[in-house]
DNA sequence: CTGAAAGCGCTAACAC
DNA sequence: GTGTTAGCGCTTTCAG
């Protein structure tokens, strides 16, 4: 089923069919157009993308590289980005880096080799050097959940929630409730957003007149290898056990994200404590499960839908050349969602 | 960066480079080979996939169409399938149908138009008629989580857990504990696997000498529109409310999947009941969260990793022409995982 | 063992 | 308005 056959069927030349296919339909008689459309329908013709791409160097696929589809947060991003893309006739190629820098780079390379010119990269890495060569050759990059850094490519778009504010809100919520002994639970602070969340935590403490030095960041050990997402829950659980073993366990815990928070809750329960009573826990992300859990989880919501839509819009306008070529940062406002997992200390 | 430039650099012809690229390297002197490899490295050459595909009609991408990446169960499938594919140099293009039959068909069409010849389809639909035209043209299809049906294409591979046995195990577990008033909570029984799970439920009841007519399938209303996955939890929650309003509420509940079960637990809690004490709940899938929830969720585990690996292996061998062309069904054995959400009735 | 040549399906100048 | 033409980068006979 080629454009040639359609042309023959419609009694026109391939280029006329091509013109129609590419929206240059003012260039032909309405009746010609009709004939071509009928031929297309009759033959069930679909343009061959490989040929089209070979010719134009363009395509309508964008890449999405996420740390882990095992975490519903990233699943939600995928859904929303896909919806936005689909509505404009774009496709999304989803890649799962498992927070492995090599895999991340390999995927971006692969995407580029596949002719994908726009990628939404949810990178855990502080530096984007590993993808710079491609950016220099024209790859359009949107960094998601990672604010701009000094060494970033000039054309980079960054889309992120304000992580520092988010976890400061979380922390402040706990101090407002009267908690004084707080802990921050995370894996390695190996990514930009994690560092910022930690910064928000300490800022929140200081604001409440608590010396950050007296608070705990757990787990203290194992910072190097505990960076996963599915593992986030296991990590939270283990961290909770560690915290409970302290002389003066914290009464309030800020977790790096909801999966981790859920693990923390599990760990506290292992230790015989009741979350939302003996200990308060705050998460980050507001995944669907936060509202299902027992107790329901107080957390910091990221406006995912808006962020995903922005990511697509930015990418699209740059792929079109219709947008600015200058980089920019979009920082979204996080929102504290208070539920049952937090309460005044007993 | 074309094959021509590599050829020039290495002082050979493009076809020799192509031969090397395609594993026909016995056809050349070792030193020629060396020269070419050096040239490739030096120039950082990567074959253009579009061109290659245009020429050969083949590619190394497989499609995965899932009902919803918002459900961690499908996220887990994506991860495992991707791992298996990656190890063999294949890519996975993930598509999210949101259980919309039209979207499902459109995606399969799109994939085919993109030159994808193999698709893992997690279809909710009893009939695969909508993709038959493509199968007739050579699309290799693996149906996941959907057992073979009478009208299916002869070449179809089906990979699924034995759903009937799974939910029979779940039901039996409840009856063994002494429960006599049971309910089955699901959205519309619109898919093959859901029907089977329901069948397993009734089989389990009969085996325990309970008349299925006295048990409840909830929700009774709204069967048409409540077929989603993220919504599964909301549905479970609403269903629980309905059940509690009955004169004699069930003491044991079998849910269609874990997300739904989590919603049920939430709904029971809304009603002031304690799961694993006042009421027992069993899920299906064994998502990561089943073991995090409070109480931890008794559920039926699907051997996801093995199933995903099988899906890829089957697809691959058929794309290679190295496998059988006959269809086949692979039914995996589910496993009951007993946790805290089930206990004898009080 | 290596090279020359044809063409996959499409698009975009450029003619007419 | 519509057709002609020249490739995009690659693979694969078929010659040498």
Automatic annotation (TrEMBL), chains A, B:
* Annotated HTH cro/C1-type domain residues: 1-25
**Pfam family example for this protein?**
LacI
**Keywords for this entry?**
DNA-binding, Transcription, Transcription regulation
Q: CDD domains under this entry?
A: HTH_LacI
Q: Does the keyword Transport apply?
A: no
Residues covered by the HTH lacI-type domain: 1-56
Under the heading PROSITE patterns, the entry gives: HTH_CROC1 (PS50943), HTH_LACI_2 (PS50932)
**Cross-referenced PANTHER family, in alphabetical order?**
HTH-TYPE TRANSCRIPTIONAL REGULATOR DEGA (PTHR30146:SF147), LACI-RELATED TRANSCRIPTIONAL REPRESSOR (PTHR30146)
Q: What is this protein called?
A: LacI family transcriptional regulator
Q: Which species does this protein come from? A: Kribbella pratensis
